[in-house]
């Protein structure tokens, strides 16, 4: 099978990482509006109240709110077929529990979508990309509370109705799979997804299992709702999955790697197989976690199956069983893969991993898959000629796209698109830095918020343009 001529080449961005304008359009405060910049190696601080001396990078973003036309024109110049954006829930329902949506928020997203359509770029809309109104955390306890599921569904319904016939591709959630009751997490990881700091969560296992469950059922209910509103809607969910390799062929390590990787799939099972997996309920019961799947939820799992799966892929990881002494520990925790290099932020660079993941997931579910994120966070330097020569980014993307091509053309995986993460430099989700840059388009802005915000093309800009024009036919492994 050749790469389809309708293959959706493009990119992905998220509202809180690019829009800025937090005080405009009656926007409420979202969870990520209260998180500071983390300097190299330091975690982002999470505040409950704004502190005058702190810098919160989402407040300025890259000013996409005012510059979206210019930015979309640049994406169109590269030949984008699709752009994945997210809707900031707190622009539509500033506190989350209002009766009526905020018109200014709806208008803004209409304008963005209209601009995309004008430029013949297919909008792919994520309904939850770390952008929950903080009020839903402080008043209701976030996703531990079923009322939040209802508020989310009301928000989804509002968006399905409002953008009906303009948007066809929807994503219910971004990366809910990072919430796992059995894995220790840093504060930022649980906060990003649910507005709760890991260290402050009481009864961690039960709480995280409940959040994971409520989000899963909410996704299924949203799918059902979206199909009812318009049967033409294609609704998926996005997962951030790392292939996990055993550190060696010791069967104990192989088993550990399987267990670690499989942990990220129970929600996909629930969204594709028509029921919440029994193995998960039993596993939870064995460690004292109690989950009740009521009748209404059972129906939701049956009726809310996904149309496609979105995959965010950045890196792979390595596992060993507890007590193993392989000497593979990396400097900053985790295990090193001696076959792979890492980015400046310690993420392994593993192009073959994307082919592995596409094959693994496609064989498990048989559903169409879209790569919804992939990219390299790097420090870019402006050369003497005033341009950024980012051959390292081109190399990373080329190697990954070649593996996607193999998955499609050799392995027959039904992958219908590739969306590069951060086609324009934007605020990093985990660190808050601007200096962790992903883009084809440079934004003149530093970690302290200084800069003209001017946009300029890096070398990778022309390279991606050519790659799209030739449907990746220009790429070779050399
Ligand atoms: C993904 C998120 O997990 O990783 C994005 O969906 C995020 O929001 C991306 O930006 C890259 O992570 P970071 O921390 O480098 O921005």
Automatic annotation (TrEMBL):
User: Pfam families from the entry?
Assistant: Glyco_hydro_1
* Cellular compartments per GO CC: cytosol
Record keywords: Glycosidase, Hydrolase
Give yes or no: UniProt keyword S-adenosyl-L-methionine.
no
Q: What Gene Ontology molecular function terms does this protein carry?
A: beta-glucosidase activity
- Gene Ontology BP, a term: carbohydrate catabolic process
Record InterPro entries: GH, GH_1_N_CS, Glyco_hydro_1, Glyco_hydro_1_AS
Cite the active-site annotation: 373
Family named by the database record = Belongs to the glycosyl hydrolase 1 family.
Name of protein:
6-phospho-beta-glucosidase
């Amino acid at each position: 099978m050749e790469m389809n001529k309708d293959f959706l080449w493009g990119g992905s961005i998220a509202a809180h990482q690019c829009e800025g304008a937090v005080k405009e359009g009656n926007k409420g405060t979202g969870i990520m509006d209260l998180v500071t910049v983390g300097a190299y190696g330091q975690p982002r601080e999470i505040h409950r109240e704004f502190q005058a001396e702190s810098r919160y990078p989402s407040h300025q973003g890259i000013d996409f709110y005012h510059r979206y036309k210019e930015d979309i024109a640049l994406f169109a110049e590269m030949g984008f077929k699709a752009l994945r954006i997210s809707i900031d829930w707190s622009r539509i329902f500033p506190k989350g529990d209002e009766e009526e949506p905020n018109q200014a928020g709806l208008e803004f997203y209409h304008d963005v979508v209209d601009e995309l359509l004008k430029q013949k770029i297919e909008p792919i809309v994520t309904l939850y990309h770390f952008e929950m109104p903080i009020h839903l955390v402080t008043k209701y306890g976030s996703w531990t509370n079923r009322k939040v599921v209802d508020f989310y569904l009301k928000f989804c319904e509002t968006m399905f109705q409002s953008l009906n016939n303009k948007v066809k591709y929807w994503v219910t959630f971004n990366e809910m799979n990072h919430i796992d009751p059995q894995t220790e997490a840093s504060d930022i990881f649980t906060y990003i997804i649910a507005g709760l700091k890991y260290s402050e969560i009481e009864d961690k296992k039960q709480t995280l299992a409940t959040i994971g469950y409520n989000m899963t059922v909410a996704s299924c209910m949203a799918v059902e709702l979206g199909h009812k509103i318009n049967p033409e809607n294609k609704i998926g969910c996005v997962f951030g999955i790392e292939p996990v390799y055993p550190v060696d062929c010791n069967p104990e390590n192989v088993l550990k790697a399987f267990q670690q990787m499989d942990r990220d799939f129970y929600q996909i099972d629930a969204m594709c197989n028509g029921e919440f997996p029994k193995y998960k309920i039993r596993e939870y019961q064995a460690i004292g976690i109690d989950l009740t799947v009521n009748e209404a939820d059972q129906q939701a799992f049956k009726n809310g199956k996904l149309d496609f799966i979105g995959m965010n892929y950045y890196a792979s990881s390595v596992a060993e069983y507890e007590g193993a002494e392989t000497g593979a520990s990396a400097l900053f925790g985790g295990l090193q893969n001696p076959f792979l290099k890492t980015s400046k932020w310690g993420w392994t660079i593993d192009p073959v991993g994307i082919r592995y993941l596409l094959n693994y997931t496609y064989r498990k579910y048989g559903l169409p898959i879209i790569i919804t994120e992939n990219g390299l966070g790097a420090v870019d330097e402006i050369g003497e000629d005033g341009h950024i020569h980012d051959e390292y980014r081109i190399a990373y993307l080329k190697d990954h796209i070649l593996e996607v091509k193999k998955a499609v053309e050799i392995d027959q995986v039904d992958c219908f698109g590739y969306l590069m993460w951060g086609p324009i430099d934007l605020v990093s989700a985990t660190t808050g830095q601007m200096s962790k840059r992903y883009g084809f388009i440079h934004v003149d802005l530093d970690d302290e918020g200084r800069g003209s915000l001017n946009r300029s093309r890096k070398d990778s800009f022309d390279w991606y343009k050519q790659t799209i024009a030739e449907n990746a036919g220009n790429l070779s492994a050399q």
